[in-house]
Amino acid sequence: MKLAAITFLVALSSLAVFGQSDVRKAVTQIKYQYLELAQFPDYQRKQALIWELDKEDGKKYLKAEVIGQYKNNKLCIIKESSKIPKGRMVREFYLYKGQLIFIYEKAETVENYTDDSGQARKRMQVVYQNSLYMKDGKILQQKPSGDYSPYPASPSTEELAKLLQRMSSEYSKALQKEAFTTKK
């Protein structure tokens, strides 16, 4: 794992020499910051459940489960899992020095299939993935794939950036207020 990370960093540093555009340089820098966050082994973890009130029946339902990973009491990674029709949506928000720099999104749905013995089975199938690189509250680059859209309408890049910033902020506040400490 460490050798792969070192090889990745060497490849990234060699790319920087060839005069990239400002966006490409910023994305490269974000990749370094992401690696720094992703490879830290000893995060403190807190978990929070986000509840939402159903306006029709007045009942609360679970909107999302959120796990915060802290380094030296500073929030670095937020992992969110929420339900979508026939599956779940998973997001990871990476914060570097308090700034949202990277978001990974993945939607999975349950797929019914029949195995070789003729038994009915279920498995999760990835129907959407996206990696978003952010700087100063703006999306620099994103790489969506799949047929599913986790958003009700196709938001502009600016609208999506604001939405993801709000989500990150909401989850951060929930972790401050209602979190309980968990083990790895």
Secondary-structure blueprint:
Layout: H1 2-16, H2 22-38, E1 44-53, E2 60-71, E3 74-84, E4 87-96, E5 99-114, E6 120-135, E7 138-142, E8 145-146, H3 157-178, E9 180-182
Antiparallel strand pairs: 1-2, 1-9, 2-3, 3-4, 4-5, 5-6, 6-7, 6-8
Residue ranges: pLDDT <50 for 5 or more in a row? 1-19
**Rg from Cα:** 19 Å
Binned strand content: over 45%
Oligomeric state of the chains present here? single chain
Q: Please state the average pLDDT score.
A: 83
The biggest sheet amounts to: 9 strands, antiparallel
Helicity range: 25-40%
H/E topology pattern:
HHEEEEEEEEHE
The total of beta strands comes to: 9
Briefly note the structural class of the backbone. alpha+beta
Total number of distinct structural domains? 2
Distance between the termini: 19 Å
Gross morphology: globular
Count of DSSP H/I helices:
3
Can you give a write-up of this model?
The chain has 184 residues and is of the alpha+beta class. The protein has two domains: 2-38, no CATH class; 44-182, no CATH class. 29% of the residues lie in helices and 46% in strands. The protein contains three helices and nine strands. Strands 1, 2, 3, 4, 5, 6, 7, 8 and 9 form a nine-stranded antiparallel sheet that branches. A hairpin with a 5-residue loop joins strand 5 and strand 6 (120-135). The protein starts with a helix and ends with a strand.
Provide a brief overview of the structure.
The chain is of the alpha+beta class.
Structural key phrases:
184 residues, alpha+beta, 9-stranded antiparallel beta sheet, 3 helices, 46% strand, disordered N terminus
